[in-house]
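Question:
Now give any protein.
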Amino acid sequence: MAKVLIIGAGGVSNVTVQKCAMLPEIFSDIVLASRTTARCEEIARRVRENTGRTITIDRVDADKTNENITLIRKHDPYLVINLALPYQDLAIMDACLETGTHYMDTANYEPPDEAKFEYRWQWEYHEKFRRRGITALLGSGFDPGVTNVFCAYAQKHLFGEIHNVDIVDCNAGDHGKPFATNFNPEINIREVTSKGKYWEKGQWLSTDPLSVHQPFDFPEIGAREMYLMYHEEMESLVKNIKGLKRMRFWMTFGKQYLTHLKVLENVGMTRIDPVLYEGMEIIPLKFLKAVLPDPGSLAENYTGKTCIGCVIEGKESGKYTRKFIYNVSDHAQTYAEVKAQAISYTTGVPAMIGAKMILTGIWKDSGVFNMEQFDPDPFMEDLNQYGLPWKIEEWNNSVQ
């Protein structure tokens, strides 16, 4: 039994807090903190209704290391679960180092003024965390997170040699809005409008944003057009999955989403540099975030399913084989359980499981680690138990 401090009160946090509250034998005390305490109070209300448990609420500006330190010292948690913005990762990691507290997040650090996705900044903390005797677990969401564990499981059990990995992510749901993002609009749009990047034959290659695409037949969904993007889990998987020849990431988008996004780009609303407006500096993307629907508000009327997984090619016992490891989640089912859409659910559940791995000592080492560096088996078992069942299929269709 241990106390956890969860920083951030968005849609993913709503899922993670509720899932943690369902396991009082592991998560004995839960503290939820955010800059906006009203969001914390709403999550706390859902926890009381669904589990009868009471959680502690506090306020913090996670951008400020000193506030994070004060918060951690006040509540003395065993683990900090960072579900705040990626810009805030290093400020929270610094606070964990200062207080000697274990750390976990779901997304890698990004500089606020540059759409650059790299683990470099966080990997540089490895020796500091090792000397402090504490663990930092990076990217315990779905992608990154579960996709990393799928690859580690395939390396351990399914293949003698892994040659190619294609991570495929499809949201075939319908939220009924003309344009909305399924997680934080600022992070989502920065990610989608960045150059694509993939790894092949020992080098990183780049593409223009969303310029490479192809159809893919997703289980329980059908054919959808998917687009090559860069995603952070590739950076660690290239280091930790042996024998790789190619690693790519693909995500589906509907025509309506892409049309709206192109218009917003063309008029400058996706810019992340400040512009002068009525004597004040504003960042267009931050303003756009303020007027777009809150991703958490989409959940109630969301229909359809998501499918996320890894198409993995390689050899087993000298024979070439291709397998697809994946999960399918239903928006209506996740809303019925925790009042969240499936995008939040598929990230929030792995965050709880990653925290459980640390709290129970199943995953334990000092330093900074990515998901695939630990034994995948207990995590895979928990996915089936806590709401994200997975399947493995022989897959006949290669990704071109």
